[in-house]
Amino acid sequence: DGGITQSPKYLFRKEGQNVTLSCEQNLNHDAMYWYRQDPGQGLRLIYYSQIVNDFQKGDIAEGYSVSREKKESFPLTVTSAQKNPTAFYLCASSIVTSGRGEQYFGPGTRLTVT
Amino acid sequence: DAKTTQPPSMDCAEGRAANLPCNHSTISGNEYVYWYRQIHSQGPQYIIHGLKNNETNEMASLIITEDRKSSTLILPHATLRDTAVYYCIVRPRDRSYNTDKLIFGTGTRLQVFP
CA of B14: how far to CAs of A58, A75, B80, in Å? Predict the structure, then answer.
């Protein structure tokens, strides 16, 4: 079964700790994305990557870091510099074409920092 | 970037058609209209997209007005499982990376009742 996996589903951390969220896809998609969602709000783009070893900041990149060493994997690190890290984090991937192509989302990781 | 306006919530009786409107009056000629939905605590799911012609797939129909300033997503026979937040998105083109960036608003919360 092709798809996107995110682990874990729920994650709890103490304030001041860095935490890394996993995202893996076996769809052979070139592009991958990280979004953040707060209660009652839409999704906001954190980082995206179109190709291995390259990524770009989205709208709310401060306090986050990513890497793209393999096509299948796009982990997100929430650093201690992120002021309000508690949120629902969603990873997505898509085929990069000439402008079409829907994004496929993973099930999300709900991060709680206390 | 073109913005979209959707009603915050709608109700629909099970078995009836659900018609979800979206205004995108500033859409430009090469921008697509995408619809996604998000069932509670899950990742968003792609539904349909279109440019100027009406589109239909196994999930829904998309009706885009001739001037492209608004569109309607139609779920022909709504079921309880269609209860979700529905996002209408006009997809901008990132000129430097040719990447499918999606800008999510707060969407329409559709409640299907028995």
Answer: 39, 40, 6
